[in-house]
């Protein structure tokens, strides 16, 4: 991609006689490509936008950096797992709040987002400047730019919620003089995210308007769902900081949620069977708003790093290590006992999410029970009804997609936004839509959950929620945890709610003695954010996050 990402610089040779450049000196040499000479066809425009999607798929560079190592393992939902505590030491440090600024997992994830931003910026600038013709119609051009702006917003959203204010660039960087950019504020990053998403939702098609071969591209519905989510996060950020304008962001979040529900009516529906969302057959199904597309490909990519295969590592990473199962895996991302206990006893989502390893399924306890924990995730592991894992075409890669946004997530975000605005009726309605699907037609799960919850004084007690605004907030939080468990949402929810310290301290008291012996203390005002990778701090003269 060098010819796409490096702008041609016109260099004049200077002779010892200090003569000016003649015509033959200013002509392009062999194998020289100009950016403007590359963007000449509709197919090129499509390919460059396609390239901007690719970093969403990346999960390995100098180490594995799949989403669950942050969204699940940092939280009270999961322990790292693997063969032992030394297996993926970078994830071990993150899990136990011992990470420092040279953490390779943190650096790889951070850089992948900026690779995506660089590709999106190039597409936005160059495709936006192309002349239309019979192939590159005005509609196709605006759709492609809309996709690129959606992707740029998504990459920046991933960055801002993990690192706070980050360097913000909205145009390609063509020279070494341009790349040294200071950190912007969180408000500035969120402002750009919102601007990109508002543009994207105005020009992108609905999901049903795409031909089958384009299923998985960004849609108007995905952009509206992200506008709901980003505004809600921004409002929570402001509320936690005591800012007076948090209410404005909550109103924007509710309005975009209402717009999604109104304008996307008929585009999405809750999948009748909850577990079907996480199967190969259920990819891009009725509940899918946006998901990262993977495919089966036999290319061997050991040691190659980003971009050398189009499958996901997550399946093999999270399968059981036990030889009891055909096609066993590497045993990462163990659901915690704390998460298991959060489910109401009758909730069928627990059995669709958590695999309990009984003694007869464990062949080597020291390799398969991690710090006293024998639970494993079921989602995206491609477990068959026979009780064995599906055989993969590639030794370490799987074709199953990762769901970035699904309808149940949108409903719960909307319910939360409504409640923030004291609009209780729709908050209850959309919470109930999610709980109703979970019942799957059975006489189970009351309107409000009854379960053991932390009261944030480091104690757990049985608490039956009721029809009050305070309990409704707890009910929505409970529902997000069990509905979206092991989908890499939990850590971000805890941080934006401003309860990460209280929750993680309370959770620690419920863990096994083995797990507690490895835990570092959560420091409020520090561990809600990750350290800026020290190499990026050095290269960009960036200010490090507090405490690192």
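^ structure tokens above, recovered residues below v
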């Amino acid at each position: 991609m060098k010819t796409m990402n490096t702008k041609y610089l016109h260099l004049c040779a200077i002779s010892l006689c200090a003569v000016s450049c003649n015509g033959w000196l200013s002509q392009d040499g062999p194998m020289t490509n100009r950016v403007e000479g590359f963007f000449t066809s509709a197919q090129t425009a499509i390919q460059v936008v396609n390239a901007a999607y690719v970093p969403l798929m990346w999960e390995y560079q100098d180490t594995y950096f799949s989403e669950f190592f942050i969204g699940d393992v940092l939280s009270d939902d999961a322990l790292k797992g693997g063969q032992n505590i030394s297996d993926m030491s970078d994830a071990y440090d993150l899990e136990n709040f011992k990470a420092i600024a040279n953490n390779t997992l943190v650096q790889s994830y951070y850089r992948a987002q900026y690779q995506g931003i660089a590709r999106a910026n190039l597409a936005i600038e160059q495709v936006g400047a192309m002349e239309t013709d019979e192939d590159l119609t005005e509609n196709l051009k605006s759709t492609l730019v809309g996709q690129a702006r959606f992707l740029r917003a998504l990459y920046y959203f991933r960055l801002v919620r993990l690192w706070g204010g980050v360097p913000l660039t909205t145009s390609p960087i063509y020279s070494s003089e341009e790349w040294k950019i200071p950190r912007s504020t969180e408000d500035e990053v969120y402002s750009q995210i919102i601007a990109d998403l508002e543009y994207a939702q105005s020009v992108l098609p609905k999901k049903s308007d795409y031909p089958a071969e384009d299923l998985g591209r960004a849609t108007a519905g995905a952009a509206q769902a992200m506008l709901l989510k980003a505004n809600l996060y921004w409002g929570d950020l402001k509320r936690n900081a005591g800012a007076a304008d948090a209410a404005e962001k909550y109103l924007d979040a509710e309005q975009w949620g209402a717009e999604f529900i109104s304008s996307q009516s008929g585009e999405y529906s809750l999948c009748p069977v909850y577990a079907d969302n996480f199967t190969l057959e259920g990819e891009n199904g009725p509940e899918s708003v946006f998901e990262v597309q993977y495919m089966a490909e036999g290319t061997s990519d050991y040691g190659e790093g980003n971009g050398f295969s189009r499958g996901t590592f997550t399946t093999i990473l999270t399968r059981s290590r036990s030889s009891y199962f055909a096609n066993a895996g590497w045993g990462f991302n163990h659901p915690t006992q704390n998460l298991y206990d959060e489910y109401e006893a009758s909730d069928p989502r627990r059995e669709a999410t958590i695999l309990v390893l009984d003694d007869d399924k464990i062949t080597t306890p020291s390799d398969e029970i991690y710090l006293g924990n024998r639970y494993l995730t079921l989602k995206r592991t491609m477990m068959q009804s026979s009780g064995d894992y599906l055989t993969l075409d590639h030794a370490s890669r799987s074709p199953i997609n990762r769901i970035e946004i699904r309808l149940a997530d949108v409903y719960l975000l909307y319910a939360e936004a409504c409640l923030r605005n004291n609009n209780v009726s729709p908050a209850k309605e959309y919470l109930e839509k999610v709980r109703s699907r979970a019942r799957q037609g059975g006489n189970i799960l009351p309107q409000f959950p009854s379960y053991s919850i932390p009261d944030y004084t480091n104690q757990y007690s049985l608490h039956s929620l009721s029809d009050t605004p305070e309990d409704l907030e707890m009910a929505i939080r409970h529902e997000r945890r069990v509905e979206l468990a092991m989908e890499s949402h939990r850590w971000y929810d805890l941080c934006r709610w401003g309860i990460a310290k209280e929750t993680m301290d309370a959770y620690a008291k419920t863990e096994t003695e083995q797990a507690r012996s490895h835990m570092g203390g959560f420091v409020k005002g520090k561990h809600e954010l990750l350290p800026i990778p020290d190499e990026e701090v050095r290269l960009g003269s960036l200010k490090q996050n507090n405490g690192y």
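Residues 314-400 form one domain.
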